[in-house]
Amino acid sequence: MKDRSRPSPGERVREPITPEERAVVARQLGRPPRAVRAVAHRCPCGQPDVVQTSPRLEDGTPFPTLYYLTCPRASAAASRLESAGRMREWQADLGTDAGLATAYRAAHEAYLAERDALGELPTRATAGGMPDRVKCLHALAGHALAAGPGVNPVGDRAVAEMGEWWAQGPCAPPEGEPT
Protein backbone atom coordinates (compact mmCIF):
# COMPACT_ATOMS: atom_id res chain seq x y z
CA MET A 1 0.00 0.00 0.00
CA LYS A 2 1.28 3.47 -0.90
CA ASP A 3 2.11 5.86 1.92
CA ARG A 4 -0.39 8.68 1.43
CA SER A 5 0.77 10.82 4.34
CA ARG A 6 2.86 13.40 2.46
CA PRO A 7 3.63 13.55 -1.20
CA SER A 8 7.17 13.05 -2.33
CA PRO A 9 8.79 16.21 -3.65
CA GLY A 10 6.87 17.22 -6.76
CA GLU A 11 4.16 14.57 -6.34
CA ARG A 12 0.66 15.92 -6.41
CA VAL A 13 -2.11 14.16 -4.56
CA ARG A 14 -5.46 14.74 -6.23
CA GLU A 15 -7.93 12.07 -5.27
CA PRO A 16 -11.64 12.64 -5.84
CA ILE A 17 -13.28 13.07 -2.47
CA THR A 18 -15.51 10.20 -1.38
CA PRO A 19 -18.79 10.65 0.50
CA GLU A 20 -17.07 9.29 3.63
CA GLU A 21 -14.23 11.80 3.30
CA ARG A 22 -16.71 14.61 2.70
CA ALA A 23 -18.34 13.63 6.01
CA VAL A 24 -14.92 13.68 7.73
CA VAL A 25 -14.21 17.14 6.32
CA ALA A 26 -17.64 18.33 7.50
CA ARG A 27 -16.82 17.11 11.03
CA GLN A 28 -13.40 18.80 10.84
CA LEU A 29 -14.92 22.11 9.76
CA GLY A 30 -18.09 21.89 11.83
CA ARG A 31 -20.12 22.60 8.69
CA PRO A 32 -20.65 21.11 5.23
CA PRO A 33 -17.64 21.79 2.97
CA ARG A 34 -18.23 24.03 -0.03
CA ALA A 35 -16.99 23.60 -3.59
CA VAL A 36 -14.69 20.68 -2.71
CA ARG A 37 -13.14 18.97 -5.73
CA ALA A 38 -10.56 16.60 -4.29
CA VAL A 39 -8.41 15.53 -1.38
CA ALA A 40 -5.17 17.45 -1.91
CA HIS A 41 -3.19 16.11 1.07
CA ARG A 42 -3.64 13.47 3.71
CA CYS A 43 -2.58 13.73 7.30
CA PRO A 44 -0.27 10.94 8.48
CA CYS A 45 -3.36 9.57 10.30
CA GLY A 46 -4.84 8.92 6.83
CA GLN A 47 -7.62 11.51 6.85
CA PRO A 48 -7.81 14.51 4.55
CA ASP A 49 -6.17 17.60 6.02
CA VAL A 50 -6.19 19.74 2.86
CA VAL A 51 -8.85 19.79 0.16
CA GLN A 52 -8.76 21.32 -3.28
CA THR A 53 -11.70 23.62 -3.94
CA SER A 54 -13.25 24.99 -7.10
CA PRO A 55 -12.45 28.60 -8.03
CA ARG A 56 -16.15 29.38 -7.60
CA LEU A 57 -18.65 28.33 -4.99
CA GLU A 58 -21.77 26.47 -6.04
CA ASP A 59 -23.66 29.78 -6.42
CA GLY A 60 -20.94 31.21 -8.70
CA THR A 61 -19.28 33.40 -6.07
CA PRO A 62 -15.51 33.65 -6.69
CA PHE A 63 -13.50 31.61 -4.18
CA PRO A 64 -9.76 32.22 -4.68
CA THR A 65 -8.57 29.71 -2.03
CA LEU A 66 -7.59 26.65 -4.06
CA TYR A 67 -6.23 24.63 -1.11
CA TYR A 68 -8.15 24.68 2.14
CA LEU A 69 -6.64 23.42 5.40
CA THR A 70 -9.42 21.36 7.02
CA CYS A 71 -7.81 19.62 10.00
CA PRO A 72 -8.69 21.58 13.16
CA ARG A 73 -5.41 20.56 14.82
CA ALA A 74 -3.34 21.75 11.86
CA SER A 75 -5.43 24.92 11.76
CA ALA A 76 -4.81 25.50 15.48
CA ALA A 77 -1.08 25.00 14.93
CA ALA A 78 -1.11 27.60 12.13
CA SER A 79 -3.06 29.96 14.41
CA ARG A 80 -0.43 29.59 17.14
CA LEU A 81 2.28 30.60 14.65
CA GLU A 82 0.25 33.63 13.60
CA SER A 83 -0.26 34.62 17.26
CA ALA A 84 3.48 34.23 17.89
CA GLY A 85 4.25 36.84 15.21
CA ARG A 86 5.72 34.54 12.58
CA MET A 87 3.81 36.30 9.78
CA ARG A 88 5.49 39.62 10.62
CA GLU A 89 8.90 37.97 10.77
CA TRP A 90 8.47 36.16 7.46
CA GLN A 91 7.04 39.31 5.86
CA ALA A 92 10.23 41.11 6.90
CA ASP A 93 12.29 38.26 5.44
CA LEU A 94 10.58 38.79 2.06
CA GLY A 95 11.94 42.33 2.08
CA THR A 96 15.52 41.34 2.85
CA ASP A 97 15.96 37.96 1.15
CA ALA A 98 15.72 38.26 -2.64
CA GLY A 99 15.85 34.49 -3.11
CA LEU A 100 12.93 33.97 -0.74
CA ALA A 101 10.93 36.72 -2.45
CA THR A 102 11.59 35.20 -5.89
CA ALA A 103 10.58 31.71 -4.73
CA TYR A 104 7.43 33.09 -3.06
CA ARG A 105 6.45 34.89 -6.27
CA ALA A 106 6.99 31.62 -8.18
CA ALA A 107 4.70 29.88 -5.67
CA HIS A 108 2.05 32.52 -6.41
CA GLU A 109 2.38 31.95 -10.17
CA ALA A 110 2.16 28.16 -9.72
CA TYR A 111 -0.93 28.60 -7.55
CA LEU A 112 -2.58 30.82 -10.17
CA ALA A 113 -1.78 28.37 -12.96
CA GLU A 114 -3.34 25.48 -11.04
CA ARG A 115 -6.42 27.49 -10.11
CA ASP A 116 -6.85 28.94 -13.60
CA ALA A 117 -6.71 25.42 -15.06
CA LEU A 118 -9.91 24.72 -13.10
CA GLY A 119 -11.63 27.98 -13.97
CA GLU A 120 -10.48 31.56 -14.27
CA LEU A 121 -11.42 34.26 -11.79
CA PRO A 122 -11.54 38.01 -12.38
CA THR A 123 -8.68 38.45 -9.91
CA ARG A 124 -4.99 37.67 -9.69
CA ALA A 125 -5.33 37.32 -5.94
CA THR A 126 -4.36 33.96 -4.56
CA ALA A 127 -4.25 33.04 -0.91
CA GLY A 128 -2.23 33.86 2.13
CA GLY A 129 -1.03 37.23 0.81
CA MET A 130 1.01 35.91 -2.11
CA PRO A 131 2.95 37.18 -4.01
CA ASP A 132 4.36 39.90 -1.77
CA ARG A 133 2.69 39.64 1.64
CA VAL A 134 2.40 37.00 4.35
CA LYS A 135 -1.22 37.23 5.38
CA CYS A 136 -2.65 33.78 6.29
CA LEU A 137 -0.50 30.85 7.39
CA HIS A 138 -3.48 28.48 7.13
CA ALA A 139 -3.68 29.10 3.39
CA LEU A 140 0.09 28.99 2.90
CA ALA A 141 0.45 25.75 4.88
CA GLY A 142 -2.43 24.22 2.91
CA HIS A 143 -0.69 25.14 -0.34
CA ALA A 144 2.65 23.79 0.87
CA LEU A 145 1.11 20.47 1.95
CA ALA A 146 -0.84 20.09 -1.30
CA ALA A 147 2.02 21.11 -3.61
CA GLY A 148 4.76 19.27 -1.74
CA PRO A 149 8.02 20.56 -0.30
CA GLY A 150 9.96 23.20 -2.20
CA VAL A 151 7.05 24.92 -3.94
CA ASN A 152 5.93 27.49 -1.37
CA PRO A 153 8.85 28.54 0.85
CA VAL A 154 6.77 30.42 3.41
CA GLY A 155 4.22 27.61 3.54
CA ASP A 156 7.08 25.14 4.02
CA ARG A 157 8.33 27.22 6.96
CA ALA A 158 4.87 27.16 8.50
CA VAL A 159 4.49 23.39 8.07
CA ALA A 160 7.94 22.81 9.58
CA GLU A 161 7.02 24.86 12.65
CA MET A 162 3.48 23.53 13.09
CA GLY A 163 4.76 20.41 14.80
CA GLU A 164 3.13 16.98 14.66
CA TRP A 165 -0.52 18.04 14.75
CA TRP A 166 -1.53 14.46 13.93
CA ALA A 167 0.28 12.85 16.89
CA GLN A 168 -2.89 12.45 18.98
CA GLY A 169 -4.59 10.43 16.24
CA PRO A 170 -7.40 11.37 13.88
CA CYS A 171 -8.98 14.75 14.58
CA ALA A 172 -12.33 13.52 13.26
CA PRO A 173 -12.91 9.90 14.24
CA PRO A 174 -15.70 8.01 12.49
CA GLU A 175 -19.19 9.16 13.47
CA GLY A 176 -20.29 7.75 16.77
CA GLU A 177 -16.75 7.34 18.13
CA PRO A 178 -15.47 9.71 20.83
CA THR A 179 -13.11 12.50 19.79
TrEMBL record:
<dbReference type="Pfam" id="PF04417">
    <property type="entry name" value="DUF501"/>
</dbReference>
<feature type="region of interest" description="Disordered">
    <location>
        <begin position="1"/>
        <end position="20"/>
    </location>
</feature>
<protein>
    <submittedName>
        <fullName>Uncharacterized protein</fullName>
    </submittedName>
</protein>
<dbReference type="InterPro" id="IPR007511">
    <property type="entry name" value="DUF501"/>
</dbReference>
